[in-house]
Design goal:
There is one protein chain. The protein has one domain: Ribonucleotide Reductase, subunit A. Helices cover 75% and strands 0% of the residues. It contains ten helices and no strands. Helix 2 packs antiparallel against helix 8, helix 3 runs parallel beside helix 6 and helix 6 runs antiparallel to helix 9.
Length: 271
Amino acid sequence: MNVGGTPTLPGPDLAGPDLADPDLVEPDLVEEVHSVAYWFDAVADHLRRGLAAVSDREGGDAATEGTDRLLTVLANYALGELTALEGAGGLVELAGDRRAKTFLATQTLDEARHLEVFTRRMRSLGVDDPDAEMERRAHPALQAFRERLLGLVHDGDWESAVFAQNVVLESMERAVFDAHRLDADLRTRVVLDGVIADERRHLGFGENQLGRRLAAGDERLARRLSELRAELDPLVMGAVEGVAAEIGLAPDRVARLRDDYEAAVHRLGLS
């Protein structure tokens, strides 16, 4: 990729094996995918591509039609990544084993990188203070979700916080990013492609952490997560529908977004 030139699209998805299967028990594979070495190999290429895609300002782009709506979308994306950054960092302390702590440490770096590329993309569109734009433009439902998730982390509720962050938030973001990338400008698409590769790995961790226990019939956990889902769903869909309106998605594509988000929860067997 030529820095400052037209960005090329990322190559193959480097996220590697998906941990979304609740039946995954092979210790060697789990050890590999949770390692720092594996993480580094997985992200090295799209890290370079994503940062290069937002390395400079686009002359005159801030005045073009639709840019204000794109900035609102990017501000919501950035706030979601900030939420995940703080959440993953807090979950490192709560994790009960070394492999989970290591994975969450790598996820924390992922979320910091996502936040950086989204705020740099905002700067490339003429924004001087991305933090102020995040606060001003973020959807109220997303802000409420952020408060709830970080509250779960603060309270030390490992199971609920992992569900809210690595299943609910990651599913919501992946569904929206997948939909947006189809119509995004090339620079934004490069950023989204790299982020999506990471989201798959994060979602797999959450599903794997909770899925085996749910499949084994942990009714207490199933009740707790179902109750939490009922609380979070209106916030998730409020945020999704708000961003979808800014992207300009047709009603049928918004419905597919809802289905994509719900599919992750259904894979865990929750009502």
